[in-house]
From TrEMBL:
EC supergroup of this enzyme: transferase
Spans traversing the lipid bilayer: none
Stretches assigned to the Nucleotidyl transferase domain: 9-271
Classification lineage: Bacteria, Bacillati, Actinomycetota, Actinomycetes, Streptosporangiales
CDD domains: UGPase_prokaryotic
Record keyword Transferase present: yes
Gene label: galU
Single annotated GO MF: UTP:glucose-1-phosphate uridylyltransferase activity
Record-linked NCBIfam families: galU
Protein name: UTP--glucose-1-phosphate uridylyltransferase
Amino acid sequence: MADFDPVTKAVVPAAGLGTRFLPATKATPKEMLPIVDKPAIQYVVEEAVSAGLLDVLMVTGKNKRSIEDHFDRAIELEEALEAKGDDERLSQVREPADLATLHYVRQGEPRGLGHAVLCAKQHVGDSPFACLLGDDLIDPRDELLKRMIDVRNTYGGSVIALMEVPEDHVSLYGCAAIEATAEEDVVRVTDLVEKPPAAEAPSNWAIIGRYVIDPAVFEVLENTPPGRGGEIQLTDALRTLAGRGGEGGGPVHGVLFRGRRYDTGNKLDYLRTVVQFAADRPDLAEEFLPWLKEFLASR
């Protein structure tokens, strides 16, 4: 195995306006919407921690203070729960603050995912880092991020997570042109296209919201003009790195993910995710699933 710098930091972009969930997100960050009884953003941080990344940078924006509060101590609440002897809820309240070392930087204006990643430059420095998007939740039983870090440790460069999607969905994603490697779940990425029409997509392997990125991306992002939607696209920067081969921050590899992914990016998928998580909860499923079956039978 080649001697590449270790991945120790995670970047979580959380500056979006959450317009698809208005009016709920008028004063509450989309990332704080609960999946049963835990905000979506906590699942993302827990995933980073489970992959060994204990240094987490949140890229936030205006009206995101509640994210910082969630991952901070809540002394008065803790004291009240302690006085009641409610050890279970006390542990749940303390858990977010104990997960990792959290840092925060503001993205002053919504200029795209690439710009949000660029905001992490000072914190990340010259080290490779993971980037986790809050719209995608990966089942903790499917250790995708750990696998991506392993691939980075083998090949260097950057690694993206790819998932096969139906042909009529490719225009919703960045899509990759790929070449096989000796490993069944690893491909070499030769090109990337952001949200192409189905007829122009290089494949139906779509980028989902997990990346392990070489620090050379920052120089590329600084010189990447706004693309689709007038935003600086991370996909465009990774495409540049892929074109460099093994030089200048390349190559780019993909991990073909066939596990369990939950989408929280729109209302319908969010509702599906809540139901799936509730159905998997031992403390809820015994009562929830019979009710759900009865409800569906009555429709």
